[in-house]
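All the exercises in this workshop are built on plain-text protein records. Sequence and backbone structure share a record, each on its own labelled line. The question running through the whole workshop is how a given chain folds. The record below serves as our worked example for the rest of this section.
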Amino acid sequence: MTEILMHEIEVRSSASEKIDVPVKFDEHKVKECASSVIMLTHKSSSLKLAVLLDTRAHQRALVVIPGNRGTSRKVSDFYMEIYGINSNGKVVIYDTKSLANFDQQNEGTDSRQNTNLQPQLTRKHISQARYEVRLPMLTRQPCYKFICLKEVSTDEKHLFQCANGTTRYTVPFPLKPAKEYEINVFCGSCDGPGRYTLDAYPPLKFQAAMDKSQLRLLYKRAIEFCNDRSLHRRIHFLYRNKPHRYFDKIRSQNGGIMTKYMKNDGGDQASPLNRAIQGLFFSALLKTTPNRRTVVPPCSPFGNQRLHVEASFFLNQSNNLYFADFFCHYTNHRITLVVTKANSYSDKFCSENLIPLKSRGNPFLYYNMWQNGFFTNLAVNIEVFYTENIDIGELLSDKAAYFTFCYSKGYSRKKSFIGQRKNKSCSVCNLNL
């Protein structure tokens, strides 16, 4: 392996310190690079300086560290990151150097960052594994932004520079299904040709959605877990628990219409359903009493009022049924099913990304024609995500729904909004175990 000089970086501070940092790498790796980004970061993460260079021209660069009364700005307080980028934006060279090694020993670092803003992620087209990064909105103009995307398991990196004013950036290649990624965003001002002062923002860690073949494997695990037909029980109603104020507000302010909302991040983090479509959750969970009767649970963490809706409202010829998730929270296993109106937007999404089920032929929640009834499986907690708004008043007048009260136990508002994530150590519902 032959190392060649890639760049020479001269670093100066306001205190007249000066060091020269030769950047050397394997010749074959250097020849893959079209451009380089040299980034200097203060040990407090309060200041970042970046330089864009033409790798093939073996450019030299001067980085001047600005003075600041409140912060030590010695050269030794910085470390250097080197990104060598090919013509497709892939980082083929990455290395870090402590500038204290060129001056004096570093006294350690802390990890303070700009926590006011954080990038957000949108799954733009799940079946094509396309994702969009929503960048922090800053008041300063002009604002230059850099995105570093890292695949956690392989440490493979890509670095992208966004045009001035960019607030949304589509990752220009498909991400690997179910893989974990980390996004770092740097925003700041231009100090001259190819030189930038940048702020770092908290990293965004996420898992790409699993593809249909992986979801099918999860579906098979769910079937294996639910293969005991002796645990199938008749069910007449599905139910939804909320605080009574929630239902009072719907009746008094929303004309009796229960409005759907975006599915949260609960369950498997790689579920294609997360943050993809809107709906309303209902439960098909039944409990067995000592005398072997099946009843709805006497209490709920989601609220003290319970809306019961006939099972036929969900499972009928106008709707389609899909398998979306199988997970646990260290205790009972759960299955998420999705009910859509045929040919709706949500139905098209589910047909592309989820596993279709027959309402008369699945082991989870189904209609039995011979017994003229609906059945659920007591082996799991089955939750149904219904993807349309619901007119409660109409259901009540048609005697297709009714209300009851129950005990409220626990506090789940935060979990409802964010979503309680699955237990990653369970060998039953994790594909990687």
